[in-house]
Task: structure prediction
Amino acid sequence: MGGGDKPLRSLAGRTLLDRVVGRFAPQCGTGLILNANGDPSRFGPFPGRIVPDDVPDHAGPLAGVLAALDHAAAEHPGIAQVASITGDAPFLPLDLVARLAEAARAAPIAMAASNGREHFTVALWPVALRTALREYLVDRNERRVGGFLREQGAVAVDWAAAPVDPFWNLNTPDDLAQAEAYLAGS
Result:
């Protein structure tokens, strides 16, 4: 995408982040957390807390999940689970959290899937897994999101990928153009 924060790219006159927030925020009664390192002011008036990683060496997506779990434990002790999403998937399903919560009744972690692919970072995580996740990241120096999910017995919840994959990550200028065309036609 040419550098910079991908969620701040524009899609049909709105940032990807704004579109993600618009679909996700109504599903999150306690509020939103954005995991971002560096100057938080670049995200403007984000309607929630911006929390950085506390695991060193840019440990990847799991460090962001851990930051969110730690924040929830400290600021919202009654919260048992935190949903995670990516900031570049503007077509998230409006029933994401409800369906993941239903599946999480039978498994420790529920993650999204579509089009034959599991979306590891779109998941519902128990706050109680903070210690296990910190051990995985820090003590074992592991970074593989799928590896942690498998160790914890995560279950996948499938969504239809038509008319558009709800977990489509817009990773290239061509993806942005295709998403613009989709929005113009829908």
